Description:
By secondary structure, the protein is α/β, with parallel strands linked by helices. It has one domain: 3-Layer(aba) Sandwich (Rossmann fold). It has helices at residues 3-11, 27-39, 50-62, 82-92, 110-115, 128-139; strands at residues 19-23, 43-47, 69-73, 98-102, 120-123. Strands 2-1-3-4-5 form a 5-stranded parallel sheet, with helices on both faces. Helix 3 packs parallel to helix 4. The longest helix has 13 residues, at 27-39. The chain is globular and about 30 Å long. The model is unreliable at 1-11 (pLDDT under 50).
Amino acid sequence: MNDTETLAAQANGLPATPRILIVDDESAMQRLAAAMLIKLGLDPTSASSGEEAVELYRKALAEDRPYAAVVMDLALPGGISGLEATLAIKQLDGRAKVIVSSSYLEQNARNAALEHGFSGILPKPYTADCLASELRRVLKLGE
């Protein structure tokens, strides 16, 4: 994160190193996304289910260490779906920034995603540049 982004994060009430929650049932995708986020100067945490994501988000709020954004896989097998987890997170924090991620998304699905409460979309597979661009857009860093 460059100085401008760090200052923008601090001005938005975010920690100097924004925390990002990655929710994906595939551990390889969690590791890849975490590596991309670390390279971008961000602090990743991973969850493999919707339930785990909601609990981690709740705990982060209680500790006053909120996540700046969540990258949420839509297709989470068993338990609650990515959409249900997003709705639960939004109930905890109406300002939560959740980026939907899925192999089944079209780039032109942004409007539908926004209507369902998502802040952005990240079609899989994604690159570090796509992830960085969507996070910048959603968090409005560097403006």
